[in-house]
Amino acid sequence: MVTPSYTIVCTRKELVAPNVYELRFEKPAGLLFKPGQFLLFDVPLVQNPTDIQPRACSIASTTDEQDLLFVVKLKQGGRMSEWIVNILTVGQVITMKGPFGLFLLRPNDHNILFAATGAGIAPFRSQILHALKQGDKRAMHLFFGVRSIQDLFWHTEFESLQKRHSNFHLHLCFSGEHPNVAGEIGRIQKFLPHFIKKSESTDLYVCGAPDMVTDIKKMGLETLGLPKQNVHAEGYI
Description:
The protein has 237 residues and is α/β, with parallel strands linked by helices. It has 2 domains: 5-100, Elongation Factor Tu (Ef-tu), domain 3 (Beta Barrel), CATH 2.40.30.10; 111-235, Rossmann fold (3-Layer(aba) Sandwich). It is built from 5 helices and 12 strands. The protein has helices at 79-86, 122-133, 155-164, 188-191, 210-223; strands spanning 5-17, 20-26, 38-45, 48-58, 67-73, 93-100, 111-117, 140-146, 168-174, 184-185, 202-208, 231-235. The radius of gyration is 18 Å and the shape is globular.
């Protein structure tokens, strides 16, 4: 089966935290995706625009939003990072393919724990907003880990969701300096275990830096006793 390819127009490029860009694009007609999936961008090498390679980005927008939303953490020397900083501009037309991926919410009655660091929060925005709009009543806890308050983004939207939906809870975790906002001091791994009541009825979804994903996945399986089928992980580089 041939993977669909689309041309899309960049409508927004904004630095929302140190080394973190929010990108928005017009959603092309005919694009269908599920919350949690990703798209592949055709990314040229800054030094040689004819050298093009795909780079994956999780879709942060919901299926009914009018544009496509992404968030990218810059990586020193990274192809996509250099492309975003030096080439991508609002109004530019680019090519992408997809959607891909099976990082989807399972249809059950389990409590849900989301664990994200940095740009790993992208698929969870799509999943959480979609689920709540559909009337999902499962208990949902989102653990969003960053180093300091300067690294936060999108938290006000999740705080608003928390006020409107009694089954959704946001937990900000700061691994570095003490913030002047409500939150926990320490890594996600320190607080997440307290929210697992029955391992067989809890689903854990993890997305972020590979080391964090590996650590929390191992903790979920070996320390917290979650069944393998209840642990779902997606890493990025």
